[in-house]
Amino acid sequence: MISPITSYSPAQIAGLSRQELESLTRADMAALNFSQIGALTTTEIEALAGTQLQALSTKQVTALAATQIRALTTSQIVFSAAQLAAFNATQVQGFEPEDIAALTTTQIKGLTASELTAMTADQIDAFSATQIAAMSATQIRGFTATEVAGLDNQQFGALSAGQIGAFTTTQIKALSPDQVAALTTTQIKGLTAAEVAVMSSTQVGALTTEQLPALSVGGFRV
Fold this sequence. Notes:
This protein is an all-alpha fold. The protein is about 55% helix and about 0% strand.
């Protein structure tokens, strides 16, 4: 059965009352076209339940504007990992830091490397140590050099040896002496030969006597 919502014009969508919006079924939400989704006002967006937003397909969520996403409350940010992966860079920047902080580890796994690259400093700062630890090697490589250098002690300390080993040489070069000195022996063991090779003399000089014994990459020792 075709949802009657398909016959609504964008103007009619923009004029729906809160009661009408709250009555929309998952089938109604799944039937919305791009123009209709774009017509939703920020006030209307705020009236939608998280379960209604979950009914949108990965194609439909790409029609949401950053301003619409910014209007969502933390309780509405219940998008699936697949939905989150479908967002573009501009859309991702619409998330408030508190929205980022509220993402579950399952949702975190849906973020793409390009989305992480596009995030603002405030958004990156919002990630908890638990969220950082849940990221894949591919996701970690999405962080820009500036983002890596901006990771706080808790975020940086949450990185596994595998995640450290996934860093690009550009990311390694971005590490501050303080970050290098903060590496645990477990993290140190994750460094690859290519990563060690691009470390500056300042970075190498920041290594502590406790770290040096752990630094053995392909026979390399400092």
